[in-house]
Design a protein that fits this description.
By secondary structure, this protein is mostly beta strands. It has a single domain, classed as Acetoacetate decarboxylase-like (Beta Barrel). The protein has helices spanning 7-10, 118-123, 179-187, 224-228, and strands at 22-36, 49-51, 54-56, 59-76, 84-97, 102-112, 128-130, 132-139, 145-153, 159-165, 191-195, 201-208, 214-223, 242-261. Strands 1-4-5-6-11-12-14 form a 7-stranded mixed barrel. Strand 8 (132-139) and strand 9 (145-153) form a beta hairpin. The longest helix is centred in the middle third of the chain and has 9 residues, at 179-187.
């Protein structure tokens, strides 16, 4: 179902930052991915987008990733500016923009442990929500996690996850013709779309180098948002599709995000139980 991809074909020169663009390092960066029945996400996105599904054990499956990390040295990419440090967890589903055929993500939202959440939440109406995020991590001399624990205390998306680095060197990604295709799919979407808190369609884009992730093993997980949306139950969360970890990387975020239009009539209208503000 997935055509082979080469990461080198997706790499681009970094667009020159300007204006409000942000530079940040992401520490304890993890991508915890789950496969789920596409019917669980029916009628959510505008019709221009479709789920970028994979075939696993003969079944068509969609993929959603939880991405926790600590923003360190979060600052302006253009001007001298104070640096911030804050915990964050993103929730994203892999999609295709049928207008451009670009592989992207549908951004469910994020929790951020900082007063600065007010800027994306209230000025740009992004689906960003406050939460108290804590990490307890330990890395050995080989740069492997012997402890990775993250907890988010939040109303919108409470979360708790415990990982360790996989002692093997092989990354196994089901549903893809080869590992590089899977890594390109999971680690290199640079554009995201989402429903703003006012119901309009928004988009953002980022840039980063090729990520140097290694495999991880899930000890336990409890992601309240995925269970509440009925995408991945708490029981299913103990069996991830994959876990990828990188101790630190660097992203450029291009701001402000763009507004593309109002919510389409055939799209899902979330209830308070599904995380709407």
């Amino acid at each position: 179902m997935q055509a082979p991809l080469k990461i080198v074909d997706l790499l681009r020169d970094r667009p020159k930052p300007s204006g409000l663009d942000v530079l940040c390092k992401l520490q304890h960066f993890a991508i915890i991915t789950y496969a789920f029945d596409p019917k669980r996400f029916a009628r959510v996105m505008p019709s221009r987008f479709k789920l970028d599904t994979v075939e696993i054990d003969g079944l068509e499956m969609a993929l959603v990733s939880v991405v926790p990390f600590v923003d360190i040295d979060f600052t302006s990419a253009v001007y001298p500016f104070p640096k911030f440090r804050m915990g964050q967890t993103n929730y994203r589903i892999y999609i295709v923009d049928t207008l451009t055929n670009e592989k992207c993500v549908w951004f469910l939202g994020t929790t951020l442990d900082s007063w600065t959440v007010a800027v994306p939440r209230f000025i740009w109406n992004l689906p960003w929500y406050p939460g108290k995020v804590s990490f307890n991590c330990k890395i050995d001399g080989a740069n492997r996690y012997i402890r990775y624990f993250m907890e988010t205390l939040a109303e919108w998306a409470p979360a708790r996850v415990e990982l360790v680095s996989d002692r093997t060197t092989e990354i196994s990604l089901r549903g893809f013709p080869d590992t590089e295709t899977g890594l390109a799919y999971l680690t290199h979407p640079l554009r995201g779309y989402y429903h703003r808190r006012d119901g309009q369609l928004g988009t953002y884009h980022v840039w980063h180098k090729q990520l140097e992730v290694t495999p991880g093993t899930l000890i336990s997980a409890e992601f309240g948002l995925l269970d509440r949306l009925r995408l991945v139950t708490f029981a299913e969360q103990q069996r991830p599709h994959s876990v990828l970890i990188e101790p630190v990387n660097e992203f450029t975020i291009y701001l402000p995000p763009r507004v593309l239009g109002k919510r389409s009539n055939n799209s899902f209208k979330p209830t308070p139980q599904s995380g709407a503000a």
